[in-house]
Amino acid sequence: MKAAAVIVAGLAFFLALKGLQKLRRSPWPGATLWILALLPALAGHGVPSALALILFLWMPGYLRRSRAKARQKAAFRAAPALLDLAAALMASGSSMQEGLIHAAAEETDPLSQAIQQAHLRSRMGEPFLRALQKVSEEEGIWVGQFLARTLHIHESLGVPLSRTLREEAHRHRELARLEFMQAMESLPMKLTLVTLVFFLPPLLAVILVPQFLQFLALW
User: Fold this and answer.
1) How many other C-beta atoms lie within 10 A of the C-beta of residue 14?
2) pLDDT of the residue at 184
3) Are 90 and 166 in contact (CB under 8 A)?
4) Non-local CB neighbours of 191 within 8 Å, separated by 6+ positions
5) Per the confidence metrics, is the pTM higher than 0.70?
6) For the chain (length 219 residues), average pLDDT per consecutive 10?
7) Beta strands in the chain (DSSP E)
8) Which residues contact residue 96 at a Cβ distance below 8 angstroms, ignoring those fewer than 6 apart?
9) What's the distance, Cα to Cα, between the start and end of the chain in Å?
10) How far is 128 from 144, CA to CA, in rounded Å?
11) Contact 122/130 with Cβ under 8 angstroms?
Protein backbone atom coordinates (compact mmCIF):
# COMPACT_ATOMS: atom_id res chain seq x y z
CA MET A 1 0.00 0.00 0.00
CA LYS A 2 2.81 2.39 0.84
CA ALA A 3 4.52 1.68 -2.47
CA ALA A 4 1.31 2.33 -4.38
CA ALA A 5 0.77 5.59 -2.48
CA VAL A 6 4.31 6.72 -3.30
CA ILE A 7 3.83 5.89 -7.00
CA VAL A 8 0.53 7.76 -7.15
CA ALA A 9 2.01 10.75 -5.33
CA GLY A 10 5.00 10.81 -7.68
CA LEU A 11 2.75 10.63 -10.73
CA ALA A 12 0.55 13.41 -9.41
CA PHE A 13 3.57 15.59 -8.64
CA PHE A 14 4.96 15.00 -12.13
CA LEU A 15 1.63 15.91 -13.74
CA ALA A 16 1.39 19.02 -11.57
CA LEU A 17 4.80 20.24 -12.72
CA LYS A 18 4.07 19.52 -16.39
CA GLY A 19 0.66 21.13 -16.16
CA LEU A 20 2.03 24.21 -14.43
CA GLN A 21 4.69 24.63 -17.12
CA LYS A 22 2.09 24.45 -19.88
CA LEU A 23 -0.55 26.55 -18.18
CA ARG A 24 1.87 29.34 -17.34
CA ARG A 25 2.04 29.93 -21.11
CA SER A 26 -1.72 29.67 -21.43
CA PRO A 27 -3.81 32.82 -22.11
CA TRP A 28 -6.37 31.59 -19.62
CA PRO A 29 -5.86 33.91 -16.60
CA GLY A 30 -6.91 31.45 -13.89
CA ALA A 31 -4.89 28.45 -15.06
CA THR A 32 -2.03 28.88 -12.58
CA LEU A 33 -4.46 29.48 -9.73
CA TRP A 34 -6.13 26.12 -10.43
CA ILE A 35 -2.82 24.33 -10.08
CA LEU A 36 -1.85 26.19 -6.91
CA ALA A 37 -5.25 25.41 -5.43
CA LEU A 38 -4.89 21.70 -6.19
CA LEU A 39 -1.36 21.22 -4.88
CA PRO A 40 -2.51 20.92 -1.24
CA ALA A 41 -4.76 18.04 -2.30
CA LEU A 42 -1.67 16.00 -3.13
CA ALA A 43 -0.84 15.70 0.54
CA GLY A 44 -3.37 12.87 0.82
CA HIS A 45 -1.45 10.81 -1.77
CA GLY A 46 -4.75 9.28 -2.84
CA VAL A 47 -6.15 8.21 -6.18
CA PRO A 48 -9.02 10.77 -5.94
CA SER A 49 -6.45 13.54 -5.59
CA ALA A 50 -4.58 12.35 -8.68
CA LEU A 51 -7.80 11.99 -10.67
CA ALA A 52 -8.93 15.45 -9.63
CA LEU A 53 -5.57 16.86 -10.65
CA ILE A 54 -5.76 15.19 -14.06
CA LEU A 55 -9.29 16.53 -14.53
CA PHE A 56 -8.32 20.09 -13.72
CA LEU A 57 -5.22 19.85 -15.91
CA TRP A 58 -7.43 18.82 -18.80
CA MET A 59 -10.12 21.42 -18.13
CA PRO A 60 -8.16 24.58 -19.13
CA GLY A 61 -7.43 23.14 -22.57
CA TYR A 62 -11.07 22.17 -22.98
CA LEU A 63 -12.22 25.64 -21.95
CA ARG A 64 -9.71 27.24 -24.29
CA ARG A 65 -10.91 25.14 -27.23
CA SER A 66 -14.54 25.85 -26.37
CA ARG A 67 -13.86 29.57 -26.20
CA ALA A 68 -12.09 29.52 -29.59
CA LYS A 69 -14.96 27.57 -31.14
CA ALA A 70 -17.50 30.02 -29.72
CA ARG A 71 -15.53 32.96 -31.13
CA GLN A 72 -15.45 31.31 -34.55
CA LYS A 73 -19.22 30.82 -34.52
CA ALA A 74 -19.85 34.38 -33.36
CA ALA A 75 -17.63 35.82 -36.10
CA PHE A 76 -19.25 33.58 -38.73
CA ARG A 77 -22.78 34.62 -37.72
CA ALA A 78 -21.93 38.33 -37.65
CA ALA A 79 -20.17 38.36 -41.04
CA PRO A 80 -23.17 38.62 -43.45
CA ALA A 81 -24.79 41.67 -41.83
CA LEU A 82 -21.44 43.39 -41.33
CA LEU A 83 -20.36 42.85 -44.95
CA ASP A 84 -23.72 44.00 -46.34
CA LEU A 85 -23.51 47.20 -44.31
CA ALA A 86 -19.92 47.78 -45.43
CA ALA A 87 -20.95 47.24 -49.08
CA ALA A 88 -23.79 49.74 -48.70
CA LEU A 89 -21.41 52.29 -47.21
CA MET A 90 -18.98 51.75 -50.08
CA ALA A 91 -21.82 52.27 -52.59
CA SER A 92 -22.52 55.63 -50.94
CA GLY A 93 -18.94 56.79 -51.49
CA SER A 94 -16.88 55.39 -48.62
CA SER A 95 -13.66 53.50 -49.20
CA MET A 96 -13.31 49.82 -48.41
CA GLN A 97 -11.51 50.48 -45.15
CA GLU A 98 -13.93 53.20 -44.07
CA GLY A 99 -16.92 50.98 -44.88
CA LEU A 100 -15.61 48.08 -42.81
CA ILE A 101 -14.60 50.34 -39.92
CA HIS A 102 -17.96 52.12 -39.75
CA ALA A 103 -19.82 48.81 -40.06
CA ALA A 104 -17.80 47.34 -37.18
CA ALA A 105 -17.77 50.47 -35.03
CA GLU A 106 -20.73 49.65 -32.76
CA GLU A 107 -20.41 45.85 -32.78
CA THR A 108 -18.75 43.58 -30.23
CA ASP A 109 -18.43 40.31 -32.15
CA PRO A 110 -14.91 38.90 -32.77
CA LEU A 111 -14.84 39.87 -36.46
CA SER A 112 -15.75 43.50 -35.68
CA GLN A 113 -13.13 43.60 -32.94
CA ALA A 114 -10.52 42.28 -35.39
CA ILE A 115 -11.45 45.02 -37.87
CA GLN A 116 -11.17 47.65 -35.16
CA GLN A 117 -7.74 46.38 -34.09
CA ALA A 118 -6.62 46.31 -37.74
CA HIS A 119 -7.74 49.93 -38.07
CA LEU A 120 -5.60 50.91 -35.08
CA ARG A 121 -2.60 49.18 -36.64
CA SER A 122 -3.24 50.88 -39.98
CA ARG A 123 -3.11 54.27 -38.29
CA MET A 124 0.45 53.38 -37.26
CA GLY A 125 1.47 52.73 -40.86
CA GLU A 126 0.65 49.07 -41.48
CA PRO A 127 -1.57 48.27 -44.51
CA PHE A 128 -5.13 47.65 -43.38
CA LEU A 129 -5.71 44.29 -45.09
CA ARG A 130 -2.37 42.94 -43.92
CA ALA A 131 -3.15 44.10 -40.39
CA LEU A 132 -6.60 42.46 -40.59
CA GLN A 133 -5.06 39.16 -41.66
CA LYS A 134 -2.46 39.28 -38.88
CA VAL A 135 -5.02 40.14 -36.20
CA SER A 136 -7.34 37.40 -37.43
CA GLU A 137 -4.49 34.87 -37.33
CA GLU A 138 -3.56 35.91 -33.80
CA GLU A 139 -7.17 35.66 -32.63
CA GLY A 140 -7.89 32.47 -34.59
CA ILE A 141 -10.73 33.98 -36.66
CA TRP A 142 -10.72 32.22 -40.02
CA VAL A 143 -13.52 34.44 -41.35
CA GLY A 144 -11.31 37.51 -40.99
CA GLN A 145 -8.33 35.75 -42.56
CA PHE A 146 -10.33 34.66 -45.60
CA LEU A 147 -11.92 38.09 -45.95
CA ALA A 148 -8.56 39.86 -45.86
CA ARG A 149 -7.06 37.52 -48.48
CA THR A 150 -10.12 37.79 -50.75
CA LEU A 151 -10.20 41.58 -50.60
CA HIS A 152 -6.46 41.79 -51.25
CA ILE A 153 -6.72 39.56 -54.33
CA HIS A 154 -9.75 41.37 -55.73
CA GLU A 155 -8.18 44.75 -55.05
CA SER A 156 -5.05 43.76 -56.98
CA LEU A 157 -7.21 42.50 -59.87
CA GLY A 158 -9.29 45.67 -59.99
CA VAL A 159 -12.58 43.99 -59.07
CA PRO A 160 -15.12 46.35 -57.42
CA LEU A 161 -14.80 45.68 -53.71
CA SER A 162 -18.42 46.55 -52.95
CA ARG A 163 -19.50 43.68 -55.17
CA THR A 164 -16.93 41.45 -53.48
CA LEU A 165 -18.38 42.27 -50.06
CA ARG A 166 -21.92 41.49 -51.24
CA GLU A 167 -20.78 38.19 -52.70
CA GLU A 168 -19.00 37.30 -49.47
CA ALA A 169 -22.10 38.16 -47.44
CA HIS A 170 -24.22 35.95 -49.71
CA ARG A 171 -21.68 33.13 -49.47
CA HIS A 172 -21.66 33.27 -45.68
CA ARG A 173 -25.46 33.15 -45.61
CA GLU A 174 -25.40 30.07 -47.83
CA LEU A 175 -22.82 28.43 -45.57
CA ALA A 176 -24.97 29.21 -42.52
CA ARG A 177 -28.00 27.71 -44.28
CA LEU A 178 -26.07 24.55 -45.17
CA GLU A 179 -24.80 24.27 -41.59
CA PHE A 180 -28.38 24.56 -40.31
CA MET A 181 -29.58 21.91 -42.77
CA GLN A 182 -26.81 19.54 -41.68
CA ALA A 183 -27.77 20.07 -38.05
CA MET A 184 -31.39 19.29 -38.89
CA GLU A 185 -30.41 16.14 -40.78
CA SER A 186 -28.35 14.88 -37.84
CA LEU A 187 -31.16 15.56 -35.35
CA PRO A 188 -32.96 12.18 -35.79
CA MET A 189 -29.74 10.28 -35.07
CA LYS A 190 -29.11 12.37 -31.95
CA LEU A 191 -32.66 11.76 -30.76
CA THR A 192 -32.21 8.05 -31.36
CA LEU A 193 -29.03 7.99 -29.28
CA VAL A 194 -30.73 9.93 -26.47
CA THR A 195 -33.61 7.46 -26.54
CA LEU A 196 -31.29 4.47 -26.39
CA VAL A 197 -29.21 5.89 -23.56
CA PHE A 198 -31.84 7.47 -21.29
CA PHE A 199 -35.21 5.86 -22.07
CA LEU A 200 -34.53 2.32 -23.17
CA PRO A 201 -32.68 1.08 -20.03
CA PRO A 202 -35.40 2.23 -17.58
CA LEU A 203 -38.07 0.78 -19.87
CA LEU A 204 -36.30 -2.56 -20.00
CA ALA A 205 -35.85 -2.48 -16.24
CA VAL A 206 -39.56 -1.85 -15.69
CA ILE A 207 -40.51 -4.69 -18.04
CA LEU A 208 -37.87 -7.28 -17.21
CA VAL A 209 -37.30 -6.85 -13.46
CA PRO A 210 -40.84 -7.99 -12.43
CA GLN A 211 -40.55 -11.00 -14.72
CA PHE A 212 -37.17 -11.84 -13.27
CA LEU A 213 -38.49 -11.56 -9.72
CA GLN A 214 -41.39 -13.83 -10.56
CA PHE A 215 -38.96 -16.33 -12.04
CA LEU A 216 -36.87 -16.26 -8.85
CA ALA A 217 -40.03 -16.72 -6.75
CA LEU A 218 -40.68 -20.04 -8.48
CA TRP A 219 -37.43 -21.38 -7.08
Assistant:
1) 10
2) 86
3) no
4) none
5) no
6) 54 58 51 51 53 64 78 88 89 87 86 91 90 89 89 86 88 88 84 78 79 76
7) none
8) 86, 90, 151, 155, 161, 165
9) 44
10) 12
11) no
